[in-house]
Amino acid sequence: MGEEIEIFLKVHKRLRLEYLPAYHPALNPQERLWRQVRYEATTNYWFENLDDVWISIRKTTHTWTQNKIKRICNIT
Questions:
Q1: For the chain, what are the domain ranges?
Q2: Are the CB atoms for 40 and 60 separated by under 8 Å?
Q3: What long-range pairs does 60-64 form, CB within 8 A, spacing at least 24?
Q4: Which of 22, 34, 56, 60 is 20 to 30 A (C-alpha) from 41?
Q5: Does residue 24 or residue 3 have the better pLDDT?
């Protein structure tokens, strides 16, 4: 932790730092998005080739609203 941060935390005693693991899927918004895309675009579907998978993913994500993306990412 740098000196400036230590000074800031001494002034603002009600704040504290919480260190998160470098990789934690539950805390990573893109992992949430990808899980939802996989569920909506690929679950229980048969694809002839990889291009068909990408087409399904594009169709699915293009229907999403900004509010839905925020909700999936847990952004208020």
A1: 22-76
A2: yes
A3: 61/37
A4: 22
A5: 3
pTM (whole model) above 0.85:
no
52 vs 50: CA distance, rounded Å: 5
Using the structure block, give the residue that is written with the tokens 């675009």: 41
Packing angle between helix 50-62 and helix 29-42, nearest 10 degrees? 110
Q: What is the pLDDT of residues 6-54, one digit of tens each?
A: 999 999 999 988 887 877 777 788 889 999 999 999 999 999 999 999 9
CA 42 remoteness from chain centre: 18
Distance CA 66, CA 31 (A): 17
Structure tokens at 74: 């847990």
CB 2 within 8 A of CB 16: no
